[in-house]
Design goal:
The protein is about 40% helix and about 15% strand. With about 350 residues, the protein is of the alpha/beta class.
Length: about 350
């Protein structure tokens, strides 16, 4: 199978995570009969392949002013080769609906488990933004709704690809990935192998550091509610990355609310540093790797925070249970990054996405 990938490259965190496993598992892909080429612009040979993958980040800035041109381009590509649109946006709830009839498959790192949810519009483009709008009366400065999928048959084109976890979120990882984007030195790309053990001594009961400055009030709402709940119990302000990673290595529980999407880069930093990941309920989300299983690899709380204190206090009171769940989450993440089957797992996932 020959796969061409149209992408701007390592220019954004999501774009880096999309490309990272291709570059690190190139040998395993080749051994499985899959050859890929990267294109940073349309040109000769782009559609000379068995599958054309298009990274959303490539055309994202063009959509507001060149939508008709983009749709025509996808229609033209699709007449030549099966096209897989790789939606590298953050949230499970936001689809570019107009592309669905034009592509072979629509791949996204996280999707609504109940695909019927895409048949309804969501305030702020997200199920959780819609929830805080409906239940808390939160209103965005520029209210917008996601476009519902017009035909249920189109839902069959949706594929859960791979989330942003398959990259390097060690202390220097983001710097190395950004540097690779400038220099292209393969040696800069590595999956982290230094996992801080979940059973290591931990002197910080809870870490709860994150920003709340978002352009959409409905996206910021959850973070503000959590921060207000925790501000009188511990420091919640941002600190340098070095101090932040050091704190995670000492933390027993790490609070990680949604950001622009349900999955945040902090989630993977927590798995690397061995604390227990404490997140809003993600049972409505399908993603891969499936690192988010309540009471198995992490612990969920309700979106309205009605069980937040109860669940957090229970974790702090039961260190063996906390350690067991944290270790299970860390081990599952390790298996997909550097385990003996990690490359084969990615190859299998890619085959599923492009089938």
């Amino acid at each position: 199978m020959r796969v061409n990938i149209l992408t701007p490259g390592f220019t954004t965190p999501n774009g880096r995570a999309f490309l990272f496993p291709f570059l690190k598992h190139r040998r395993a892909l080749r051994e499985a009969g899959i050859e890929f080429r990267l294109f940073d612009a349309p040109g000769p040979g782009l559609t000379d392949c068995d599958r054309l993958l298009v990274d959303r980040k490539f055309q994202e800035p063009m959509w507001p002013t060149r939508e008709a041109e983009i749709l025509d381009t996808f229609a033209d590509w699709s007449r030549q080769v099966p096209v897989v649109f790789c939606d590298t946006s953050d949230s499970a709830g936001w689809l570019i609906v107009k592309l669905l009839p034009l592509v072979h498959a629509y791949a996204k790192g996280q999707l609504l488990s109940d695909r019927a949810g895409y048949l309804e519009p969501h305030y702020g483009y997200r199920e959780f933004a819609d929830y805080y709008h409906r239940t808390h009366g939160i209103v965005d400065d520029s209210p917008e709704w996601s476009s519902p999928v017009p035909d249920p048959d189109l839902l069959g084109k949706l594929r859960a690809s791979w989330n942003t976890g398959l990259a390097d979120y060690s202390l220097a990882g983001p710097f190395r990935m950004a540097l690779f984007g400038r220099l292209g030195w393969q040696a800069l790309l590595r999956f982290p192998r230094n996992f801080h053990p979940a059973e290591a001594p931990r002197t910080v009961p809870v870490s709860c550091r994150f920003g709340t400055a978002y352009a959409r009030a409905t996206v910021a709402a959850q973070r503000k509610l959590v921060r207000e709940r925790m501000a009188d119990r511990m420091p919640v302000g941002k600190i340098s990355r070095r101090r932040y990673i050091a704190e995670l290595q000492r933390a027993r529980v790490v609070v990680s609310p949604f950001g622009w999407g349900e999955i945040t880069l902090k989630d993977f930093e927590v798995f690397l540093t061995g604390g227990l990941l404490f997140k809003p309920d993600m049972s409505n989300i399908e993603t891969w790797p499936d690192l988010f299983v309540d009471d198995e690899t992490c612990v969920f709380h309700r979106w309205d925070l009605s069980d937040f204190d109860e669940r957090l206090d229970a974790l702090l009171a039961d260190e063996p249970r906390r350690r067991e769940i944290a270790a299970a989450g860390q081990e599952r993440y390790r298996a997909h990054l550097v385990g003996s089957d990690a490359a084969d797992l990615f190859v299998t996932r890619l085959r599923t996405v492009v089938a």
